[in-house]
User: Fold these one by one.
Assistant:
Number 1:
Amino acid sequence: MKAIIVNKPGNSDVLEYCDVPKPNLKKGWSLIKIKGFGINHSEIFTRQGHSPSVKFPRILGIECVGIIEETTEPDRLPIGQKVVSIMGEMGRDFDGSYAEYVLLPNQQIYPIQTKLKWDILASLPETYYTAYGSFLSLNVNKDDSILVRGATSGVGIAFTNIVKSLYPNIKIVGTTRNLNKRAQLINKGYTDVIIDNDGTLETTQTFSKIIDLIGPKSIKNSIIHLKKQGIVCSVGQLGNAWYLDEFDPIMELRDFKKLTSFYSGDVDEALLNEIITMVEDNRIQDVKPEKIFKLDEIQQAHAYLENKDHSLGKVVVMNEL
């Protein structure tokens, strides 16, 4: 099969398109023929060598959509069954989805029933699952004023799409480091756009709900922009910081403010299928990838996502449309 091998950490040119043996079936694992997968910032971090537990060579990729090719659980995962997989240790402890086929543990393969096109489906798993989980964690309602910190990211666009689909008149503001993206963000549904100057927002506005995709680098500044009884949900680490230092929750969370999160590694099969159904029923509208690449264009896909001046929304790689 064709796959993308990373033999050593580095920039995007370490992603090598080559022939490798198709994985052999083993007890408790099934083989998926991959139709498509999303590209995630965490895979870029791993490719760069920022995941100490990952050993090279490795096929990256933490998510995929496809069909069962070979199975060890025929009742739940029959051959031909459409499936999704997210997270677990795919692409980290064992080879992941940057390939034509992937061998995965049965417990992290989720059967789905859908007629969605493969490119639409490939836009959903990690991105919309995270966005919808964050939406629920924030307990969003129609009277909220919302800030999306990291608005140009795939999860930021997905979250905004969910919110605006369910509450069309809600106020939702996005942040960016590049004001040249303002028109694109307004077109994606944002009410307004604020500059994020290296972790500090250039505004005095406050919001009832904030989804923070930058992470520990910006959390304390986000809390400053919360209204009384507001909630901030930290679900990303785009700021390349993994831990929150010098944080006094008693002082930082005054005025009944709350800090929460959502971890996409805790996969709820019912929640995943709920999102797919909401897209299929058009309750969540205009779901589509921002950019589609082929497997042999993986270097360009990574380069696009890393380009802070041009990247916007979800990037997917398709083996088949």
Number 2:
Amino acid sequence: MTGNEMQYIAEAFETNWIAPLGPNVDRFEKDLATYIGAKGAAALSSGTAAIHLALELIGVGKGDRVFCSTLTFVASANPILYCRAEPVFIDSEEDTWNMSPHALRKALEKSVREGKIPKAVVVVNLYGQIAKMDEILSICNEYDVPVVEDAAESLGSTYKGKKSGTFGKFGIFSFNGNKIITTSSGGMLVSNDVEAVEHARYLASQAKDPAPHYEHSVLGYNYRLSNVLAGLGRAQLEGIEERVTARRTIFKRYEQAFKSQAAIGFQPELEGTFSNRWLTVITLNPESTSLKPNELKGELFAKNIESRHIWKPLHTQKLFKDVSFVSHEEEAPISERLFKQGLCLPSSSSMTVAQQERVIQTIENLLS
């Protein structure tokens, strides 16, 4: 917590704004839009809800095709199924671990041959690192396909000086408990299309028509963020730059500690980008060590140190066993290799130097 959370929560109670609307919601939307440089923002119950509404606003429906990064949490793709659309997963590339422009072009060319251009492309900024947006947007614009930028993990990151979440037709953020700022649970839909953002608020409030009674013309959702939780978000956003600095400092400490270890690699930071380093992720080089991520995870756990595997690629999940996948390299999907070699290390903004040194020492002892 930053210290100001209780002030805004108390204001919500004192003014009796406990519902999913009120001054905290309005201010949180305005402050976040100002911070990233977007014209509009709608505070929602989750980042997943934000992706769902983005797809709805684009007009994704039954039978439509939607491309999505494969190396991501399932929440990036579940809304495609909510819309009864068909996901197609796109492999990663080495420089960012995000959607491969090469694989994206292959997938689009294949869709053209099949006569089924995707209705949207969901691009994920993995662990805070922004994807190759120039190349991806250029390809999508060539085929007139709108982009939804899943910036759930990248608040505070930049690409050529521009904040994440502002590159696609819509951007989305998550404020889940593990994100760089949190509202306990919550999310935000952002866009320069102010009318679309306003329509998102309408859909997120059960699509109640302007009438003296309860009138509904279209399907709506219960997706608005509580005014109490938005108070948390206001306070958290005030400290976003300090949190980004803290995460980057943690990453640099890990990087410095393992710079001479051939067995350990890190997620790259693409030239011209600035990652918030939401999580520090390492890879274990099988040519330099026999230690596997699962073994390292178990040894860390034995020392009461939590770590997590990299996201398991969605094209390998049982939920999506019949879904198409386009690989960056035909013989060896990069996303699958990263999953087999990668592990997320403790990276909390409040992590102390002593705590981090204990993690580092444990890993060094295992490697030696």
